[in-house]
Amino acid sequence: MKLSRRTILQGAGGLAFAVANLPMDALAQAPSAAAGTEAPPILFVHGNGDYDALWMTTLWRMESNGIAHGRMMAVNFTNPTARTDDTVEQANRSSTEDQRRELAAAITELKRRTGASRVALVGNSRGGNSIRNVIKNGGAGDVSHAVLCGTPNHGVFALDDLLGSEFNGRGAFLRGLNEGDSEVTPGVAFLTLRSDGMDKYAQPDGRFIGRPGVPTNVTAEGPELKGATNLVLGAIDHRETAYSPRAFREIYKFIAGREPARIAITPERTVRLGGLVTGAADGVPTNRPVAGATVEVHHVDRESGERRGDVVHRSTTGADGRWGPVEVESAWPLEIVLTSPDAPITHFYRSPFPRSSDVVHLRAARPFTPEDKDAAAVVIMSRPRGYFGLPRDIVLFDGKEPADVHSGVPVDATATLRLSASDVGRNVVAQFNEERIVARAWPASENRIAVAELTY
Asked: Where would one find the signal peptide in this protein (predicted)?
């Protein structure tokens, strides 16, 4: 009998997850929520350049295990990208102090909403830096648990130059967080989740910082912390340390104090969707709302990608950048068309949404590049909660592997396909493992980009 990854992940009982590298001193870090008690409210914190929508499937899994929607929140940093030098102001980028202030405000808001005295924090990548910064600098009393997923706790690199970088293990910021015999703050239960060698930001070679062949002085163990519970999740990528079903199991178990009843997402028959339209400023992604953007939602045929019936929803964003809400069936594949000022028209082709979400955020595709000039159509495959290129994955576009998807340590969460004139107007198939999405090859001459979002 053939078992797909999707079949295996249908329930916790089918998960043969091994836990590696659990030091004995971490056993003292028992989660405070015992079986039968309510878990603390949970605040999710995204990484560098990202947004809160990446936590969508995690939120659904939490809800499917009885965590009330109102007891969870995901922060959306205004300027999510770090400065080149943390001490030097840089337009549309944030310092560690900017992030600390925004996260502290989000903690206060979640406590107000729920009436809880303490909350649990879960962060991916740079989000873990912000969590540690808040806790170490006066916020420990507000936090019960801290889960750091793929966080470069000892840097993406540890070098004697670029000392102002937040991601330099020898820089002032990380040295301050890591000083002392223990690298965690007393009174808060810490868990780190890391990859066993597939995290692009925990590599001994500097090719991911533009210095191939130069030692980074960082290893796969870089995300671990002295005094924390440190778990190795296997050969997963940087984002999968936070957003994968495997990571969800450990996050839930650590915070709730018990195994999740299920890993699979419990579907709702009718779902309600909405979100925020954001953009970029001078090429830097921001989470500031975009006004005057038009959003259309279409129900499309699963096999052909053709639109079925009339437009399901159309709205134009106001000053708050919000679009929706729209009600759709949970089995519907969708095409969402975003027409945003000063950006290419972007068609998002999405697999069905099994549950309602108010974080279906839309950011227009990047402007056309010189490499696109001879393309009749541009299609971008996007895997928001993971990266492409691992040997264990099958990535296909119309049955062929995209030219910029390579084996080994993953390079990016997107793959760009530049198609010829004969492809314009036809439907093309993007596939990641068992997930298959049909997208239309819109003509680039009309300033359109198709994005096939593989949400597995």
From this structure: 1-28
> How far is 377 from 28, CA to CA, in rounded Å?
56
**What is residue 97's DSSP assignment?**
H
**Residues 203-255: pLDDT tens digits?**
999 988 889 999 999 999 999 999 999 999 999 999 999 999 999 999 999 99
Write down the pTM of the prediction.
0.90
Q: How many whole angstroms from its chain centre is CA 236?
A: 14
Burial of 329 (0-12, 13-18, 19+ CB in 10 A): middle
Measuring CA to CA, how many Å separate 231 from each of 9, 193, 258, 315? 20, 5, 16, 45
Alpha carbons 234 and 21: distance in angstroms, whole number: 11
Percent of the chain whose predicted confidence (pLDDT) is above 90: 78
Q: Which amino acid, 452?
A: A
**From residue 445, how far is each of 74, 424, 449 by CA, in Å?**
38, 10, 10
pLDDT recorded at residue 61: 98
Paired tokens of 307: 């639109």
